[in-house]
Amino acid sequence: MSTDAVSKQQRAFFRKLYLSYQISQEQHNLTSLQKLTGMPRRTIQDSIKDLSDIGIDCTFTQHEGGRHNDGHYHICDWGPIHRVWVESQLARIEAALEIAKKD
Q1: Measuring CA to CA, which residue among 59, 56, 61 is closest to residue 86?
Q2: Considering the entire predicted model, what is its pTM?
Q3: DSSP-assigned beta bridge partners for residue 74
Q4: Are 74 and 58 in contact (CB under 8 A)?
């Protein structure tokens, strides 16, 4: 699949899948997701806010005793999305989002 063939809607969908997958793999906050993906903070915030549009339930867990917004995201329910399929399509999703693999 060529990145030229990816529509705006597909990129938005892939972005939600990619962020959900990364959140499910380890504890992430906005800063760590920015470093991992290279995406702008606002794009990440908007994508996470809109995860419920595709049936994914994501919450933010505040760390006890931490400062405001000190915590991490957690995928509570994948809804109709199969996490294993997302994992199997990760290279395709990264290519569509133009995310370089970090070694």
Answers
A1: 56
A2: 0.88
A3: 59
A4: yes
For residues 55 and 79, is the Cβ–Cβ distance under 8 A?
A: yes
User: 42 lies in a domain?
Assistant: yes
CA–CA–CA angle 62, 99, 57 (5° rounding): 35
49 assigned to some structural domain: yes
C-alpha span between 14 and 18 (Å, rounded):
6
Which amino acid is located at 36 in the chain? L
The 10s digit of each residue's pLDDT in 22-64 is 999 999 999 999 999 999 999 999 999 999 999 999 999 987 7
Any domain includes 13: yes
* Domains identified in the chain, total number: 1
Residue 103 belongs to a domain: no
Q: Write out the two tokens for 4.
A: 């030229």
